[in-house]
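Morning, I've got a small favour to ask if you have a moment. It would help a lot if you went through both lines with me. I owe you a coffee for this, so here goes:
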Amino acid sequence: MRIGVPTEIKNREFRVGLVPDSVKELTSRGHSVLVQSGAGAGIGSSDDDYRAVGAEIAPDAAAVFANSEMIVKVKEPQEVEWKMLNKDHILFTYLHLAPDPAQTIGLMESGCTAIAYETVTDDQGGLPLLAPMSEVAGRLSIIEGGYFLKKTGGGRGLLLSGVPGTDPANVVIIGGGVVGTNAAKLAVGVGANVTILDRSVPRLRYLDDIFAGSLTTKFSTEKALEDALKTADLVIGAVLIPGAAAPRLVRREHLAMMRPGAVLCDVAIDQGGCFETAKATTHENPVYEVDGIVHYCVANMPGSVPLTSSHALNNATLPFTLALAEKGVAALDDNPHLMNGLNVRDGKIVHPAVIEALGENPKL
């Protein structure tokens, strides 16, 4: 199969769809890989590094799309990219279609087969291709949240850990999944006072066990959330419904309960965000303020650590990329977990969660 890797063009997105190690796996099996010149610059991999593992180098994205059967990316295609897709293309990348009717319509009109990393499943009911970026984003949420909690970042002027004789920051994490667990690891590690809210008692029991009492677990109710927000210095939104729009759990009226200069970090912003006042931001302009509360809502958080992120992502995606390269769309029939990644095919939305969010014929 002919596999194309375009340069990511989303604002300050430095990751790459295939790292050289993954290209080597594909070329050694007889597949051809076409990499846009400079696509690996963000992870320190030159065009020569890609040539050394058997890739060809294309001068621009147009050449990549025109000469490839499968496009492997990281972020959802931008308008200029989805216009280069056609019915013969397999697109394998993150899509996050539920809050994005424009992209969904673009993919439908292209006729391509669009497979989303974030809805591929595994035998344990997990999301194995979303997990590595959730791990990165969860840990980054504490790093970035701690930065903007500083006065110079627009926040309260508080150190997450505190120092002897002072109080540490109160970190509230809404959602105890992969993002929430990884956020908790860093927050507990630096000495913050951490509370996790979740609606799964087994999950809360698991978190209590692995953190051995070093954080507080609470069953998430409206009252529990409000009580936590009143004393929160940093709130991490980490709620995910696979393929669907995130629920808006923190409403604007809640902001009045919070301490001025507190920080909200919405890691669910790719799926529309779990804060009512959330809107997607970029690494270039990452924060804004609403009612005295700092909002950090960068939609591609892992893009700021592309070396870690690209390799972590490829470790998870490579087996599926190889299967698609070997069998094309027939690989979907062989693997029900990969089939769960199928979002758009033959001009139609096929993923139930996306249909529920946008309908079968989305409108702008």
About this structure: The chain has a mean pLDDT of 96.
